[in-house]
Amino acid sequence: MLRVKEVADLVGISVRTLHHYDEIELLIPDKTTEAGYRLYSDDNLETLQQILFFRELGFPLKEIKQIINNPSFDKKEALELHRSMLLEKRSRLDQMIVTVEKTIQHMEGGIQMSNKEKFEGFDFSHNPYEQEARERFGDQAVNEANAKVQRMSNEEQRAFSEQFDAIYKKLAVIRHIAPESDEAQAGIRDWYNFLNNIGNYSLDAFKGLGEMYVNDKRFTNNIDQYGEGLAQFMCKAMGVFADENKK
């Protein structure tokens, strides 16, 4: 059996993380010595591997705990699921690497890229920030949005993506004007209405979403692919929109 420090060194995570998993009863070591040292068995390590696979795929700890504690949980079946999801993730990353390489060549004048080619590899059908949205805005808004998207036909989903893309492109064009200007506020109203067509976002939630665009670099990097500074512009414009419409 291994002590907590040995497990941490073996896996490459912190001792504090293992302590936290124990405290929330996600991974309880099989034994604890009289001196209070946690001792982890091979079964514990197998469970830890499952936890870290789920974490790599973006699952929150609360959901992981529910999954692995379910009597019907099958480790082999879970590993097969991990494999298929990781292969899908690798495929998407490979496509994005190709897109990056082609974009570099395009910038250097070596090739010409169509607008469609510039966004190959991006996949908005899986939202990596869903947990942050749930924690910030509550389950209801996120569940309603997910349910509406899932009910869409392929054609409706394509139209949805095209509308999303059109709004962002329009905002990217005007991102250098004052966020409080009539033109900027009209563009942001389109975004607000779009979100509320698929969910139920209050003005405060809308403003909070804008703040996430600049506070979380993952959001910033994705949004700024439409134009550098777009995330900052949207954050300011969304804040103005929310404040003005609450009066």
From TrEMBL:
<dbReference type="InterPro" id="IPR012925">
    <property type="entry name" value="TipAS_dom"/>
</dbReference>
<dbReference type="InterPro" id="IPR000551">
    <property type="entry name" value="MerR-type_HTH_dom"/>
</dbReference>
<dbReference type="InterPro" id="IPR009061">
    <property type="entry name" value="DNA-bd_dom_put_sf"/>
</dbReference>
<dbReference type="InterPro" id="IPR047057">
    <property type="entry name" value="MerR_fam"/>
</dbReference>
<keyword id="KW-0805">Transcription regulation</keyword>
<dbReference type="InterPro" id="IPR036244">
    <property type="entry name" value="TipA-like_antibiotic-bd"/>
</dbReference>
<dbReference type="Pfam" id="PF13411">
    <property type="entry name" value="MerR_1"/>
</dbReference>
<feature type="domain" description="HTH merR-type">
    <location>
        <begin position="1"/>
        <end position="70"/>
    </location>
</feature>
<keyword id="KW-0238">DNA-binding</keyword>
<dbReference type="Pfam" id="PF07739">
    <property type="entry name" value="TipAS"/>
</dbReference>
<protein>
    <submittedName>
        <fullName>MerR family transcriptional regulator</fullName>
    </submittedName>
</protein>
<keyword id="KW-0804">Transcription</keyword>
<keyword id="KW-0010">Activator</keyword>
